Design the sequence.
């Protein structure tokens, strides 16, 4: 097959992903061309000019593989086909060719910690201990001295991410299988060499097709403590197995093998980013070490957990101090050994302008201030669809508006099992549900927000009447045009890509200030991350030319930052 990516060569800048801006497309919610209310691959092709105009270098596609869609594609039943909901393999080839034609790149989501329970590997594995894939999943006997299949006889006490025990009983096999997420997402056994080889062969197949890399779903969960021991109990009464399944004993061996086996033999370089809940800065530095690491970068979770009190549904106010300390700590810890990924949003996180910003009074100001702080750190920034126009949380009215497996499970457990007041559970969902990120992309003020002419699979946010691409594109003061300028800054100034990082102590709690250095160039960011004005002492010897700001010039008093004002100086 003629690989649409064949035009890329090893002569491409080795570490091209360092100067890249990545745009995540949650396909189901991006653009629908066939009127079924679900986004599709041809819909992306229609909007490539838009992404190019924004300055995007790489597109990350959330999973489009064949899937029962219990977790919107993060449950794959065939890794080598496109789900008919989204189109065909030919549509994907067309998209890839169109992306490459524009000098952009495309990476796929790689979901290989688990498969769908409908994957042929699992269907065979569950039938018999003699099948070819018998050992491809984690099968264990019931706890000794218990009645198999009865509650309490699970092999260990771990809870699953989407509720209940992490074990499911299969009478045909007379054993339990492990699922860290839903029962429909059985965990693959990476300790089995045949399993690893099957994954690597599949990755080869995609790279041969011309894709430019992978975003690897919960990839730090692939090596588990072989004893799978009981763990201390969580609030929900199940054991928290994290210490035993995250960053397990073979994590380095498996990722090193993947790199050696899949990526090293190929000419050219690929973008690899591992999603890693719970990863520490020290682990991340080792994993992304530019000489000895296995991945280009990882997604860490610390800065998106600062408003969670124990679990994500219990809120505590985010403090700017914590945010600043966390971001700066990751910058310093990875230094020039590793490499950071930079994100506020993705398909699992509520919208940042509603969460850490102010989506009413200072909507534009806070969206642009948060964007600036993020993009001007050292690392590769990720823009999640709609972030570039300041899309907000959804404002869902009732439980019937939610679609996400995790959200629905939380509501059922909170209200059904723990007898929580439904309005309390709903409030938590409105704030933290993943569905906040999944409402349709707001292209225009049309009834389906320009996303669909049909009935959308999840409600469009009513604010699409004024908050949409059409009202912002070409408007100098819009969030969209600000993002364009911010991205252009990265492409224009080497200091944004390669500069070192140093936090600036201003003595003001609500200010985040930092400086990047490269040779004689110094880029300084002052951001007021609050609703109140604040004064700041700047250093005029370094802070010379104002290259980006989110308040119009007339209001600029050099030593005062308005609410959510951000300024970027260059020397
Ligand atoms: C990752 C994905 C999330 C999914 C989970 C299980 O965290 O980002 O959407 O539900 O893994 O695959």
Sequence:
């Amino acid at each position: 097959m003629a690989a649409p990516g064949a035009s890329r060569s090893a002569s491409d800048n080795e570490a091209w992903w360092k100067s890249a801006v990545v745009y995540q497309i949650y396909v189901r919610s991006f653009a629908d061309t066939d009127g079924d209310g679900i986004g599709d691959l041809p819909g992306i092709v229609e909007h490539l000019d838009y992404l190019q105009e924004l300055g995007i270098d790489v597109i990350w596609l959330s999973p489009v593989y064949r899937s029962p869609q219990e977790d919107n594609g993060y449950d794959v039943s065939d890794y080598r086909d496109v789900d008919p909901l989204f189109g065909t393999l030919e549509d994907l080839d067309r998209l890839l060719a169109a992306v490459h034609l524009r000098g952009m790149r495309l990476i796929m989501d790689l979901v290989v910690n688990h498969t769908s329970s409908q994957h042929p590997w699992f269907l065979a594995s569950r039938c018999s201990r003699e099948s070819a894939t018998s050992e491809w999943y984690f099968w264990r006997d019931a706890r000794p001295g218990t009645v198999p299949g009865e509650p309490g006889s699970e092999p260990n006490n771990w809870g699953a991410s989407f509720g209940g025990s992490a074990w499911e009983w299969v009478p045909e096999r007379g054993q339990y299988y492990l699922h860290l997420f839903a029962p429909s997402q059985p965990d693959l056994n990476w300790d089995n060499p045949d399993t690893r080889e099957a994954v690597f062969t599949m990755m080869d197949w995609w790279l041969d097709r011309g894709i430019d890399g992978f975003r690897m779903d919960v990839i730090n969960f692939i090596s588990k403590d072989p004893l799978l021991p009981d763990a201390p109990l969580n609030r929900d009464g199940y054991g928290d197995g994290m210490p035993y399944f995250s960053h397990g004993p073979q994590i380095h061996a498996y990722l090193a093998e993947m790199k050696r086996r899949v990526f090293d033999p190929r000419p050219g370089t690929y973008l690899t980013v591992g999603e890693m809940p719970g990863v520490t800065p020290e682990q991340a530095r080792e994993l992304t070490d530019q000489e000895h690491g296995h991945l280009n970068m990882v997604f860490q979770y610390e800065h998106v957990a600062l408003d969670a009190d124990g679990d994500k549904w219990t809120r505590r106010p985010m403090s700017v101090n914590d945010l600043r300390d966390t971001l700066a700590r990751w910058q310093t810890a990875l230094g020039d050994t590793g490499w950071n990924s930079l994100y506020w949003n993705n398909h699992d996180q509520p919208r940042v302008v509603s969460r850490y910003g102010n989506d009413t009074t200072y909507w534009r100001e806070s969206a642009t201030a948060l964007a600036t702080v993020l993009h001007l750190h050292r690392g590769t920034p990720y823009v999640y669809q709609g972030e570039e126009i300041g899309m907000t949380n959804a404002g869902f009215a009732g439980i019937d508006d939610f679609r996400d497996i995790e959200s629905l499970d939380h509501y059922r457990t909170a209200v059904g099992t723990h007898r929580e007041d439904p309005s309390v559970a709903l409030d938590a969902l409105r704030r933290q549900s993943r569905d906040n990120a999944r409402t349709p992309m707001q292209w225009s003020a049309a009834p389906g927000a320009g996303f669909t002419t049909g009935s959308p699979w999840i409600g469009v946010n009513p604010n699409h009447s004024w908050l949409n691409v059409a009202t912002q594109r070409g408007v100098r003061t819009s969030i969209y045009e600000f993002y364009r300028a911010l991205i252009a800054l990265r492409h224009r100034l080497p200091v944004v890509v390669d500069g070192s990082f140093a936090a600036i102590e201003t003595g003001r709690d609500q200010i985040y200030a930092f400086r990047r250095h490269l040779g004689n160039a110094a880029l300084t960011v002052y951001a007021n991350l609050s609703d109140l004005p604040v004064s700041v002492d700047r250093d005029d010897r370094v802070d010379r030319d104002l290259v980006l700001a989110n308040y119009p010039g007339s209001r600029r008093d050099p030593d005062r930052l308005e609410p959510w004002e951000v300024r970027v100086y260059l020397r």
In short: The chain has 16 helices and 22 strands. The two ends are 50 Å apart (CA to CA). Confidence is low (pLDDT under 50) at residues 1-11.
